[in-house]
Design brief:
This protein is an alpha+beta fold and about 375 residues long. It has twelve helices and eight strands. The protein is globular. The chain binds flavin-adenine dinucleotide.
Length: about 375
């Protein structure tokens, strides 16, 4: 492994140039860590290793504050790292999604010492975290969540249920939303806490999704004790933490997704020589439009601006592009892609099935349209 050499890059073009050299020097190792066809356990192991490699060499420390283990500079610098990684043909580690989704909220809302302790563990791949928001009956209507936290001495005592918690079975910690107000307190009575996944009282049951992976889990929390020092932001201020996380999930994560989709479109053009030009053109248009939209969001995030509800546009376009691309792949790669056992066919099938989830996770498409209509276009609400 080679380390980042020379001065820490401070501009997008410096990152592109220096990271390109680094990618070339580490090609053999990277190819091994990103080999297709690994099962879920092997993928997690390889991605932790990849993440450590990128952390130790400095690249994914770009754009995080120095006091939290970063190298400083703007967040756009590490967005470019992901893009260059994909352009060179490597899939971005899916933990990058977690980092960009949960990392900014930890940096902003965790007590400084806690943030300084936790964030480097996430960035370096030492730990994986999950997101405990959704509950049965509280997905789109997140403000109605019921998982209850009661104060007891220095702890919160938490009881309730979470569902669709992605990869909770491999997670070391969970960023959990709990109700600390009364049952009718809505979004004002929610608090965010960081829970260790090895705390007694957590019963975790994996749920298999349609691509065959046990990605999801149900979490049953039976008087789980979490130190109150693990509270993120204010007690009763969890909604602000949740909105920061959802803005990151819809915004920065869309950037990663579009870099990866560009790469998959190239794969499709190579593997489906008879792809109709109109289909290829539409896929390109959708992905490129997403890139332009997402670039605006990443720049705004990078400047520390409040991006409000605008990532709902990114999220909608992301799911439209993703569904179009992988439906086109399944239609035009020929019938054998549905059954063949080779890694490429399995990859296309998996990407097609997962694309169906893109208009659900991070807030369903109908909810994004509602946000765009009400908060951006200011259309009158339903009576
Ligand atoms: C791949 C994947 C990963 C996920 N990972 C996580 C995770 O790690 N952590 C986590 O907490 N959650 C996770 N989720 C859950 C996700 O956040 C919820 O599925 C999502 O918010 C929708 O909630 P729901 O499933 O309860 O559906 P519901 O809220 O019951 O919605 C069902 C349908 O009704 C529509 N609908 C609901 N309310 C309205 C309305 N007011 N107006 C118009 N239409 C409406 C929705 O758009 C949707 O089509 C994940 C989901 C997926 C698919």
């Amino acid at each position: 492994m080679t380390l980042m050499t020379g001065a820490v890059p401070g501009t997008v073009s410096q990152v592109r140039e220096q990271f390109g050299v680094w990618l070339h020097e580490n090609e053999e190792l990277l190819r091994r860590l990103c080999a297709p066809g690994m099962d879920v356990a092997a993928t997690f192991t390889a991605q932790r290793e990849l993440q450590k490699l990128l952390f130790d060499s400095g690249w994914i420390r770009l754009g995080w504050p120095e006091e939290l283990g970063g190298l400083g500079g703007e967040m756009i610098l590490r967005a470019v790292v992901v893009e260059e990684l994909c352009s060179a043909g490597y899939p971005p580690p899916f933990s990058f999604g977690t980092q960009e989704v949960l990392g900014p909220a930890i940096a902003r809302y965790a007590p400084p010492q806690l943030a300084a302790d936790l964030l480097p563990r996430l960035l370096s791949g030492q730990e994986y975290w999950c997101q405990g928001f959704s509950e049965p009956g509280a997905g789109s209507d997140l403000a109605s969540l019921r998982c209850k936290a009661t104060e007891d001495g220095a702890d919160w005592v938490i009881a309730g249920e979470k569902v669709w918690t992605s990869w909770a079975q491999v997670a070391d910690r969970c960023l959990l939303l709990v109700r600390t107000g009364d049952a009718n307190s809505g979004s004002r009575g929610i608090t965010a806490v960081m829970m260790d996944m090895d705390t007694p009282g957590i019963d975790l049951r994996p749920l298999v999704s349609m691509n065959g992976d046990a990605e999801f889990c149900s979490l049953y929390l039976d008087d789980v004790r979490v130190p109150r020092s693990r509270t993120l932001g204010d007690v009763g201020g969890g909604w602000a933490v949740a909105m920061t996380i959802l803005a990151s999930e819809r915004g920065a994560a869309a950037w990663q997704r579009q870099t990866w989709m560009r790469c998959r479109l190239q794969d499709l053009l190579r593997q489906a020589p008879h792809l109709p030009p109109a289909v290829a053109g539409e896929a390109y248009e959708l992905i490129h439009s997403l890139r332009l939209l997402s670039r605006r969001t990443v720049r705004a995030l990078s400047r520390g601006e409040d991006i409000g509800a605008t990532p709902s546009f990114d999220k909608l376009l992301m799911s439209t592009a993703e569904k179009f691309l992988f439906a086109a792949a399944l239609e035009h790669l020929g019938p054998t892609v549905l059954f063949d056992g080779d890694a490429a066919s399995a990859g296309w099938r998996n990407d097609y099935l997962y694309s169906r989830a893109s208009s659900i996770y991070g807030g369903a498409a109908e909810i994004q349209r509602d946000i765009v209509a009400g908060r951006i276009l200011r259309l009158p609400g339903r009576r």
